[in-house]
Structure formats: structure tokens, C-alpha cells
Design brief:
Layout: E1 13-19, E2 22-27, E3 33-36, E4 39-42, H1 43-46, E5 54-56, E6 63-67, H2 71-77, H3 87-96, E7 104-108, H4 114-123, E8 128-133, H5 136-148, E9 154-158, H6 161-164, E10 174-177, H7 186-192, E11 199-205, H8 208-220, E12 224-230, E13 236-242, H9 247-281, H10 290-304, E14 320-325, E15 328-334, E16 341-345, E17 350-356, E18 366-372, H11 377-385
Parallel strand pairs: 7-8, 7-10, 8-9, 10-11, 14-16
Antiparallel strand pairs: 1-2, 1-6, 3-4, 5-6, 11-18, 12-18, 13-17, 14-15, 16-17
Helix pairs in contact: 2-4
The structure holds S-adenosylmethionine (SAM).
S-adenosylmethionine binds near residues 82, 85, 111 and 113.
């Protein structure tokens, strides 16, 4: 998948990281210009740079990072044609479905291909992904992307899996259904799953009514170990402080850090305002320095306590502080204020500490998992009564 060169080459697909919220794919083409609100960049200037380089814009005001694509970055940057799966869910599904190198996997629908990219990498060249999409334009676009990204272990079929089922029988190790009515595809999934070993299925549904319908149908078709999960993200803020003698001192140090950070923030705001005023006085007419805008995005988040998902987060130093020394939890201390928890690890002269934000990211969907064991339960029952 993708280029394995150390340096960017003409024709490479790269991921351009502008800010945490603004990441996009770019096909590097000699002679072209990449324009963004953070400045202009000549593709020619990117060619030959090592992947991971930070590049200043032509006018030196903004900057970008040029990254080698990975499924994780692709999920963050891809053009959305549908709702997509994000990394927390993808990782959990991959683990629960026991998807690994050499696995044969079915997914429906393909959508924007977010799940497909991660799965294609996990299964490698010895595995295979059969992906199904009934929306023709999406199927064509995804097929083109998979080919461009060198995903030769993926077969994309344009079809309605609820009506017509899958193209393989007794061959899949795992099935993942991200469909509006997954229960309509469960019987087809059963016939596609191999019967010589335990196999697994996951259905991704946003509401509980859909989960209940899926659970009923899974039961009817002899699936077992039916379990539902919801993946929620809880942000941590990680900092490094000099190694301290006592847990209470960690708390004091963290409070000082918060005060110093706030002072730094106010100084940065004052200096940004001063340079904007200076440019205005000098009549450049360009008050919005793109470089500053990139800074301002993070300043705004600190100031308003706004999380990545737009929700308000608690940026105060937390109530309970946990200090870990050499990765052993050695206690906790109340430093007052909120209900955040601070944890840490490290050794030597510095201690890594993290503050856990109390709120969690919003609901995406419920994950309903189930297993299909080689012998149907009714056969086992029959055997045991004979
Ligand atoms: N998991 C995908 C990803 O990570 O990018 C997103 C899937 S999207 C939410 C659901 C897709 O299922 C849509 O593209 C839709 O067209 C497709 N779909 C819905 N019903 C289908 C069916 N019966 N057969 C095949 N595809 C279907």
C-alpha cells in the first residue's frame, strides 16, 4: 500500500497536516501549486523532502507537515462520501473479530473505505477483504481508490447484500456489517462464514432499536456470545515535569504548570495582537497572518476549553492526582477543583504526567458482536440427548 520511499517523489500521494482539524490528501505533481488558508506551497519544493518534513509556505507565514499515508492518517484525511468509521471503533472491531495477517474478511457497505484501508493493511497480502457497496458511484470511486492505493488484497463488488447476499460461501473468518439494516444480511453472512472453526460477526448500528433487531436475528441463526459495546474516547493531556519527591509535590507542580501555561497563553495573545496592529499600521492590508492562525486555533481551544469535537472540556487542574514512578502507581492526592484525574509514569529526572478530562466524546454507534461456532447449538443439543 502506498509509497515506501523515504523521500517524497513526483506522483506520490502524501498527507498534508495543516492543523489537528485540517488534514488532507495531496497527489504530488511537479509544476503544481498547493494553496490553503495557511499559505501556498510549490509541489516542486516537496519533491525530494524526507517524509515527515515541516515545510514553510512560499511567503514564510504558514507551514505544513508532509506525511506518508497510513490507514490511520487516511481515515483522518479521506474525502467523506458517507459517515465513516474512526480509529477507536476500527481498532476495537479488528481486535474482537480477531482479524489478523491472513484473515479472510467481508465488509458491507464499503462507504468511504475508511474501515477497508485499515483491514487491508491488517490482513496483508496473505489475507483477503471482500467489500460490498450497493451505491454505484461510491462503489466505482472506492474501487478506483483501492487500485490507486495498491490494495490488491481487496475485491469490491457492487451489489445489495441484503437482497443478493455475498459472493463467497464457507470462506470468511469474519464479517463486518455497517448497513442501515444489518439484520437483513445476517443469514447471508452465516452462509459466507467458514464452518470448520469459530468465526465472528460485528454489526455497527447507531440506535438501540436496530441493535435489538440484529440481536434477535443473530439468535435465530444460531450465533452465540452476543455482546454489545460502545466505544467512547476520553482525552488525556500529557506533560513532563521534573521528577518529584512526593505525590503532593506533583499536585503543586501541576498547579504551577497550569498558571505558567496561562501566562504564556496571555503573552502569545498580546504578541499576536501587537503584530496584527503593526501590520495594519504598515498598511500591508493583511491582518491575518496564516502562521498565527495556525497558532490561534490551539490558543482558542485552551481559552474556551473547547475539545476537538466542539464540546467544552474542563481544563482546570484535576482533583485527584496519581503519580506513577517507574510505571508503578504510588498514590494519589487531592489538589482541589474538578473531578479530573491525573496519572503519570517515567523514571530518572523527569516524570510524565497526564490529566484525564472528565467528559467523553460523543456516541458514534453500538457494536454488536457474535460468534458462530462450528457445530450449531441444536446439533450439540441433539447429540447430548441421544
Ligand atoms: N464503514 C464505511 C467506512 O468506514 O467508510 C462506511 C459505511 S457507510 C456508513 C454505509 C454504506 O453502506 C453506504 O455507502 C451505503 O451505500 C451502503 N449500503 C447500504 N445498504 C447496503 C446494502 N444493502 N448492500 C450494500 N451496501 C449497502
Amino acid at each position: 500500500m502506498w509509497s515506501e520511499n523515504r523521500e517524497v517523489q513526483d506522483g506520490d500521494l502524501v498527507i498534508v497536516w495543516l492543523t489537528r482539524e485540517f488534514i488532507q490528501p495531496l497527489q504530488v505533481t511537479a509544476g503544481k501549486l498547493f494553496n490553503s488558508k495557511f499559505g501556498s506551497y510549490r509541489h516542486d519544493d516537496l519533491i525530494g523532502l524526507p517524509y515527515g518534513s515541516k515545510v514553510a509556505s512560499s511567503h514564510g507565514r504558514g507551514f505544513i507537515h508532509v506525511l506518508r499515508p497510513t490507514p490511520e492518517l487516511w481515515t483522518m484525511a479521506l474525502p467523506h462520501r458517507t459517515q465513516i468509521l474512526y480509529l477507536a471503533d476500527i481498532a476495537f472491531i479488528t481486535s474482537w473479530l480477531n482479524i489478523r495477517s491472513g484473515s479472510n474478511v467481508i465488509e458491507a457497505g464499503t462507504g468511504s473505505g475508511s474501515f477497508s484501508h485499515s483491514t487491508a493493511r491488517t490482513i496483508g497480502s496473505s489475507g483477503h477483504l471482500w467489500s460490498y457497496e450497493f451505491h454505484e458511484a461510491r462503489a466505482l470511486k472506492a474501487r478506483q481508490e483501492f487500485a490507486e492505493h495498491g490494495m490488491s488484497n481487496v475485491t469490491l463488488t457492487h451489489r445489495n447484500v441484503c437482497r443478493d447476499g455475498f459472493t463467497i460461501v464457507d470462506a470468511a473468518d469474519a464479517v463486518f456489517l455497517d448497513l442501515p439494516a444489518p439484520w437483513e444480511a445476517v443469514q447471508h453472512a452465516k452462509s459466507a462464514l467458514r464452518k470448520d472453526q469459530t468465526t465472528r460477526i460485528c454489526c455497527f448500528s447507531p440506535c438501540m432499536e436496530q441493535v435489538l433487531r440484529t440481536v434477535n436475528v443473530l439468535n435465530e441463526h444460531g450465533f452465540t456470545e452476543i455482546t454489545m459495546y460502545e466505544t467512547l474516547m476520553r482525552p488525556h493531556e500529557v506533560s513532563q515535569i521534573p521528577s518529584l519527591k512526593s505525590v503532593r509535590q506533583v499536585g503543586e507542580e501541576l498547579k504551577d504548570m497550569a498558571v505558567r501555561r496561562e501566562e504564556r497563553r496571555l503573552r502569545q495573545i498580546a504578541s499576536s495582537a501587537a503584530s496584527r496592529a503593526k501590520r495594519k499600521r504598515e498598511g500591508t492590508g493583511d491582518e491575518s497572518d496564516p502562521g498565527e492562525m495556525q497558532e490561534d486555533v490551539s490558543l482558542k481551544r485552551v481559552k474556551t476549553g473547547e475539545g476537538e469535537d466542539g464540546k467544552t472540556s474542563n481544563t482546570r487542574v484535576g482533583a485527584e492526582i496519581r503519580k506513577h514512578s517507574d510505571d508503578h502507581d504510588v498514590g494519589s492526592v487531592d489538589v482541589g477543583g474538578s473531578n479530573s484525574i491525573v496519572g503519570g509514569s517515567g523514571s530518572g529526572r523527569y516524570l510524565n504526567v497526564s490529566r484525564v478530562f472528565p467528559e467523553v466524546r460523543g456516541h458514534t454507534s453500538y457494536l454488536t458482536f457474535a460468534c458462530l461456532i462450528p457445530f450449531p447449538p441444536d446439533a450439540i443439543l441433539r447429540n447430548s440427548t441421544e
